[in-house]
Specification:
single chain; mainly beta; Immunoglobulin-like; 2 domains; six-stranded mixed beta sheet; five-stranded mixed beta sheet; 6 helices; about 10% helix; about 40% strand; globular; binds copper (II) ion
Length: about 350
């Protein structure tokens, strides 16, 4: 073989092997966070964000501005269960944020827990309080960026998405468990630099989380005692019990479907499974390096995620569950319908 051909072959092999190698351009840390005693000028969320199973469109460019605020408001997790929740971006879970690997997020958040929202006055537990946010997708000094802010204050900080995948975010203000069972959880998707090896025909975001509540009058209130025992009264996908049984996700027979699955806990594991198919590929924490094949389910502890890809083999309705079936009975059950 001629030397030039050997050189070209060597280059091709090297570049293939490095396809998913760790990028040397890691950004460790970020400028100091800024806390202001003024509120963001409006309540609207800003950035590549979406709600429910919809995947946001990542923005172009090296930096992306993201803003969502904290509010205390009435949230329903089923027609029968409502409670005064503490939220990021007004919902449980908070909005899904999607960025590209290497992008820097310029984030800002106001603690609006001192502002009244509809139905709030009915509750005795509507005290304004400190909140914070902890992005698992970031690598920054938590004492600085994840510090608690007072009601009426706004925090600004930035972080760079070094690693691809699916990551949790949550309020980190003590008692952290309490802030999480009040609803302060969410997910960040970091798109890998070179994407995933296969093209997906459909993509959906699925966040599993537990609810620890007790009845108080016509409403419910979060219950620390049952949370400490890790005994939820409900487990849901994207914050609403059984929503994808009423409105199944859509697909077509033969399509390759990609779910970004995040277990936001806060306490229990999930064994995520789709009845009637096999996960062709699973990427643990959504990193293309962490590839598994032919999995019947994927076991995810609290604050673990995965990207799962599967083929819907023929027309039909496929149920996705936490195969720890007590959780499925408590609400961790949905459907995807292949037409
Ligand atoms: Cu909080």
């Amino acid at each position: 073989m001629k030397p030039i051909i050997i050189c070209i072959l060597a280059l091709v092999i090297t570049s293939c092997n490095n396809k998913h190698s760790v990028d040397s351009k890691m950004q460790y840390g970020a400028p100091e966070a800024k806390v202001e005693s003024t509120v963001n000028k409006d309540t609207a969320v800003k950035g590549p964000l979406s709600y429910g199973a919809i995947i946001p469109q990542a923005a172009d460019g090296d930096t992306v501005e993201v803003k969502f605020d904290v509010s205390h408001r009435l949230v329903s997790i089923s027609p029968d269960i409502s409670f005064l929740a503490w939220t990021f971006g007004n919902t449980i879970p908070g909005p899904v944020l999607k960025v590209r690997q290497g992008q820097t997020v310029k984030f800002s958040m106001t603690d609006r827990s001192n502002q009244s929202t509809p139905a709030m006055d009915m509750f005795v537990n509507n005290m304004p309080m400190q909140h914070s946010i902890d992005f698992h997708a970031a690598m920054v000094n938590p004492e600085d960026k994840y510090r608690s802010i007072q009601p009426g204050e706004t925090i600004h900080f930035q972080w760079t998405a070094n690693y691809p995948g699916v990551f949790m975010y949550h309020c980190g203000t003590p008692m952290v468990l309490l802030h999480m069972i009040y609803g302060m959880i969410g997910m960040v998707i970091v798109e890998p630099k070179d994407g995933y090896p296969d093209k997906a025909d459909r993509e959906y975001a699925i966040i599993q989380s537990e609810f620890y509540l007790k009845k108080k009058g016509d409403y419910f209130v979060p219950d620390t005692a049952s949370a400490m025992k890790k005994q939820p009264v409900a487990v849901a996908f994207n914050g609403r019990i059984g929503q994808y049984l009423v409105h199944p996700l859509k697909a077509k027979a033969g399509e390759r479907v990609r779910f970004y699955v995040m277990n936001d806990g806060p306490n229990n594991a999930t064994n995520f499974h789709v009845i009637g198919t096999i996960f062709d590929k699973v990427y643990l924490d959504g990193n293309p390096f962490n590839e598994l094949r032919g999995m019947q389910s994927v076991y995810l502890g609290p604050a673990s995620g995965a990207v799962v890809e599967f083929i819907l083999p023929e027309k039909g309705t496929y149920t996705f569950v936490d195969h720890s079936f007590a959780d499925a009975e408590l609400g961790a059950k949905g459907e995807i319908k292949a037409e």
